[in-house]
Input
Amino acid sequence: MILVYSVGMDLAAIPSPVELIELPATQIALAELVLLAVAGGLLGAFVVLRRLAFFSHAVGTATFPGLVVADATGFSATVAGLCVAVGYAGGVERASHTGRAPGDTATGLLLVAALAGGIILASDVFESGAAVDRLLFGTAIGLDGGDLALSGVAALLAVAGTVLLGRAWTAGGFDSVSAPLLGVPARRADLLLLLLVALSAVAALPAVGALLVTSIFVVPAAVARLFTRDMRGLLLWSMAVAAAQGTLGLYLSIWLDVPPGPAVAVLGAGVYALCATGIGARSRLPGAEAA
Amino acid sequence: MAPPPAVAAHGLSLGYGAGPALEGVHFEAAAGTTLCVLGPNGGGKTTLFRALIGDLRPLAGDVHVAGRPAYLAQTERTRLDFPVSALDVALMGSLASGRWWLPPRRAERHAALAALERVGLAAQADTLFGELSGGQRRRALLARALTQDAAVLLLDEPFAGVDPASAELMTAVFDELRSEGRTLLVSTHDVESARSFDLVLCLNGLQVAFGAPGESLGREVLETTYGSDLVILEEAPERPVRAITVQHHEH
Ligand SMILES: Nc1ncnc2c1ncn2[C@@H]1O[C@H](COP(=O)(O)OP(=O)(O)OP(=O)(O)O)[C@@H](O)[C@H]1O
Ligand SMILES: [Mg+2]
Output
C-alpha cells in the first residue's frame, strides 16, 4: 500500500500498468471495478431507460448517514447501507403504486437531508475526520474480500435478473398500462429492479463512495445509448463502457492519488461529453440524453 | 343455460374522485360478437375501457372480461425513446403465452412478423418504434394485440390517425378476428361504421342505448348521445337514419 502511494505521489512519473497489476491491492480493486461494471452496466441500461437515474443517486446518498454511524460505532457498513437502501427502494415502490410517487422535489429534499445529516453526524457527533472522504468518494486500496464478495453477488444477480426479467423490464417500461395485461408480473419485476439497483449501489459504496455511486449506473448506459439501437446492443455496450471506465478510472486514481469515485465519475462524464458532442447532432435515439 | 358472456358490465358506475363520470352501464356481449362503443368526446368510452382492463376500480357495480384482454389505448402511453423496433413491440404480445422469463421462440417471432404483415407494417419491422409515424405506431401496437392471441380485444378508437387504406386493412383484420370467434369492443365516433357491428353501446355520461344497431341507432338515441354535435344527413321511413357527428371545439 505504501508502494501504491509512493508511485502515485509524483505526478510526472506515470506508473507502469504492468507493475501496478502485480500489486495485490490493485488486483482486488480491479476485480471490484470489473464486477461493478457488470452490475452497473446491465442494471444501468434499465436505470437510464426507466428514468431511475435520480433514484440510483438518491439510494446511494441516502446510505451516507448510516455509513457514518456504522463507521463510528464499528457496526457493519454493508448491513447499515443495505438496510437504508432496501428500505428506501421498498418505500419508493410502495409509494409509486399508491399514486404518491416521490417526485423529483421529494427525492432532492431527501438527498440534501441525507448529505447534511451525515455531515453533521460526522463532524459534530462522531468526529469522523478523514473517514468522511472515504465514505463519500470511495477508496482504491482499502478494499477486501468481503467487498469483492458483495460485488460478485450483485453482478451475478444483475446477470440473472437481466436474463430472466429483461423482457418484463423492457415491456413494463415501454408501456406500463399494457404490461400487466400481457401476463407479466410487472409490479414484482419493478420492485426487483429497484432492489437490485439498491444492492448494487451498496456494493459500489466502498469503491466509489456514497456520493458517486450513480456514476457506475448512469454514465456507461448513457454513453452506450449513443451507439446502439437495440436492447442487446445497449446491454453489451453498457457493460463494456463500464468496464473500460472502471479500469481507466482506477489507473487514474492511483496515478493522480485521488479516490476512485471522482476519477471514475470525471472520466465517465468526460467520455460522455465527448461522444455526445461528437455524434450529438446525429444522435439516433430521440431523448438519448435523458439521463 | 347460456354460456357466460365474454364481456359484461352490471350496474356499473365509474369516476375519478369528484362524482361519477359514467353511470348506469349495463350490458353483456357473448363470445364471438363485435360491440361498437359510440359516444361524444367525454362520453365515457375510454373510462369504460379502463374499467374493463382493471385500471379503474368501479364506484358501483362490476365488470367481467373473459381472460386477459388485449388492449389498444386511445392515447399512447408508450415510451418513444426505447430502443425497440416495430418487431420488438409486436413480439411483446407473445409474453402473454406465459413464458415471459424466456427469450422469444422462433414460432413467436414468426407470429409477430405475421401480425405486422396483417397490419401492413412488414416493411417497417426493423424500424425503431419511436421513428414510426403516429398511424404506424398505432398499427404496431395493434400488431402487439394480435400477437397476444387474446379472446377479447378492447380497441379504443383504433382508426384515429390511420389513413383510409390502412383503415380498410384494419377492418379486414377485425372481420378475421370475429370469424376466429374472438370478441371485439371497438370505440369510435363514426356513427355510420357502427352499423357493421353486432351490437352498439351508446354512452354520454350514462348508457343511452344498448342493442343491435338496427334497433338502437334511431334518431332519438343519436340525439341523446350526441346532442348538438349530431347532423342528420338523411331520414326516410323504413330506412335507418344517416348521420354524422361534428366536433364543436371549445377553445
Ligand atoms: N384521468 C381523469 N381524471 C379525471 N377525469 C377524467 C379523467 N379521464 C377522463 N375524465 C373525465 O371522464 C369523462 C369521460 O372521459 P373519457 O375519456 O372516458 O371520454 P371518451 O368518451 O373516451 O372521450 P373521447 O372521445 O374524447 O376519447 C370526461 O368528463 C372526462 O373529463
Ligand atoms: Mg376516449
